[in-house]
């Protein structure tokens, strides 16, 4: 009986989303390492010192997304928009999903660096299927409660 709860919890570990982001790009430029994460409709940047991997919290971070047939999109990333205050976040309003050219510009004290890369961005239009685990938890809980009550009555 005591093992049922941990075993049930293990069944749902695939549904857990940590900070909600996947690494799209990681590059070193000069004394900094720039890592770009993505979540639906969100880009986050982690800026670290290349020597000791210390997080840089006082930088100005700008993102430029470009794609043939679209005008360039330039966004400022700030810690204010980020859930995790070690990151600089920007909400991207992309007109279409697909492959984009990303340029990340970072200015920290006397250091100005820029990294570029190709990223595959999903559309910022979220569907209900993105949140199905969260929506399914209430009916699942009700079903488990009803099954529990029925088993108690049989005893």
**Which of globular, elongated, flat, extended, rod-shaped describes the shape?**
elongated
N-to-C SSE series?
A: HEEEEEEEEH
Q: Please give the count of helices.
A: 2
Radius of gyration: 21 Å
Oligomer: single chain
Largest sheet, described in full? 4 strands, antiparallel
Q: What class, by secondary structure content?
A: alpha+beta
Core attributes:
155 residues, Immunoglobulin-like, alpha+beta, 20% helix
Description:
This protein has helices at 4-11, 132-154; strands at residues 22-29, 32-39, 42-49, 60-66, 73-77, 88-90, 98-108, 111-121. The protein has 155 residues and is an alpha+beta fold. The chain is elongated and about 75 Å long. The two termini are 16 Å apart. Mean pLDDT is 81; it is low at 6-10 and 12-19.
Summarize the structure.
The protein has a four-stranded antiparallel beta sheet, with no helix packed on it. Strands 5-4-7-8 form a four-stranded antiparallel beta sheet, with no helix packed on it. It is elongated and about 75 Å long.
Topology:
Elements: H1 4-11, E1 22-29, E2 32-39, E3 42-49, E4 60-66, E5 73-77, E6 88-90, E7 98-108, E8 111-121, H2 132-154
Antiparallel strand pairs: 1-2, 2-3, 3-6, 4-5, 4-7, 7-8
């Amino acid at each position: 009986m005591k093992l049922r709860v941990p075993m049930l919890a293990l069944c749902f570990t695939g549904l857990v989303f940590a900070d909600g982001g996947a690494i799209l790009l990681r590059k070193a430029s000069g004394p900094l390492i720039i890592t770009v994460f993505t979540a639906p409709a969100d880009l986050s940047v982690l800026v670290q010192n290349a020597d000791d991997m210390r997080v840089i919290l006082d930088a100005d971070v700008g993102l430029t997304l470009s794609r043939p047939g679209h005008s360039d999109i330039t966004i400022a990333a700030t810690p204010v928009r980020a859930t995790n205050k070690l990151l600089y976040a920007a909400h991207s309003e992309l007109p279409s999903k697909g492959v984009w050219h990303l340029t990340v510009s970072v200015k920290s004290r006397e250091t100005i660096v820029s990294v570029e890369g190709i990223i595959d961005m999903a559309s910022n239009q979220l569907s209900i299927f993105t949140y199905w685990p969260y929506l399914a938890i209430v009916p699942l809980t009700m079903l488990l409660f009803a099954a529990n009550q029925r088993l108690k009555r049989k005893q």
